[in-house]
Amino acid sequence: MSTADVEKAAPEIEMVEYGDEGFIVEDAPVNLSDVIRSVPNFVSSSHYDDYETIDWIRDTILARRQKDLFKKGSGRAFAGRFKMLLYKSQGWLLLFLIAVAVAVIASIMNVSVEYVVDTRFGYCSTAFFLSRKLCCRLSESDVLFDTCDAWHNWAKIVHLETNEIVAYIVNWFFYVVISIIYAGLSAFMVKNLIRWAAGSGIPEVKVILGGFVIKMFNSWQSLVVKVTGLVLSVGSGLSIGKEGPMIYIASATAEIISSLFH
């Protein structure tokens, strides 16, 4: 529903701008509820097709009507006022949940990248899921974390550590092969599962902020592939960073959590 549709529904109303209390018409506020009731099925849903421009007027009126209906359903009793307080505070709750979720994802990514990087050199004999630093810190060895007995390089794993030259070649071979596997797996996931996970995601976020709808871009499927692919790509040694994609990860996390409040 565009501005022209509203003007057709109420041709005698000349809208200048939208304020907190409604459409400002010749220095006098117009109640949105009256405008909504004057147009049958003014807003049926907030559904948009792919790459469709967001109708800000329609969504604003939909949000106002939803708030009005919530007020009427809450009543004036203590329970109703408490529900209204929760309704008004959900914005702050949403920001808190988004911040916590993004921080948790970032922490998981940092730990996972450290582990993936270390697997190119060997693995922990006491607990294979530990990185080299954690493995040696938790072991009984008092030597430096990169040479502790609990951490086994690939030459030692395949029992070819007796000769230094052979051990160097074996470690180099496993380093290259595992790096290629990680990078190839990351590319395979993006190409065959969710192609929106490719790149940093910053240009697409700018497009969305400009008022366009891109379906599946901020979906949980894209987020999972993005995080997994980023961990594998950075862990494989590719010359990329986590800072740019974190903008997309925050955007996707915000949209996923926001959908729970609809």
Structure description:
This protein has 262 residues and is mainly α. The strands form 2 sheets. The chain has a 3-stranded antiparallel β-sheet with strand order 1-2-3. It has a two-stranded antiparallel sheet with strand order 4-5. It contains 10 helices and 5 strands; from the N terminus they run H-E-E-E-H-H-H-E-H-E-H-H-H-H-H.
Brief write-up:
This protein has ten helices and five strands; from the N terminus they run αβββαααβαβααααα.
Search tags:
262 residues, 3-stranded antiparallel sheet, two-stranded antiparallel ribbon, 5 strands, disordered N terminus
What gross morphology would you assign? elongated
Order of strands, widest sheet = 1-2-3
> Which structural category do the helix and sheet elements fall into?
mainly alpha
Q: How many angstroms separate the termini? A: 20 Å
Count helical runs.
10
Series of secondary-structure elements, N-terminal to C-terminal: HEEEHHHEHEHHHHH
Q: Main β-sheet, in a few words?
A: 3 strands, antiparallel
Uncertain runs are: 1-32, 35-46
**How much helical structure, as a percent, in the residues?**
55-70%
Average pLDDT, all residues: 76
- As a percent range, the share of strand residues is 5-15%
Backbone CA Rg: 28 Å
Task: Tell me the number of strands.
Answer: 5
